[in-house]
Design a protein that fits this description.
Elements (H helix, E strand, L loop, with lengths): L2 H12 L7 H12 L7 H10 L9 H19 L11
Length: 89
Amino acid sequence: MNPFEKDLIRRLEGMGMEAGIIPGFIRNLANIILPNSSLSLFQINKQMHLLGWGGVELDYHTLQLAVACFEGEALKSTGKTRIENKAYS
């Protein structure tokens, strides 16, 4: 587990999320972010709420940690050097 993943998990736990549901939350978040890289924070939160994650409101810092985690995984699997995403820069 890389430092970004550890920080993301700690941050989600600090927001009141139980450790057992964090992997599902992160998986749903990845499924929203990766194919739709132009979504805003508001749009991502809206999509997560539609999936039943209404008790958690992502902030900008937590979203950035998640994006860093997803970029690391995507880069390992595709060999790219960066994921282009104007909404997060």
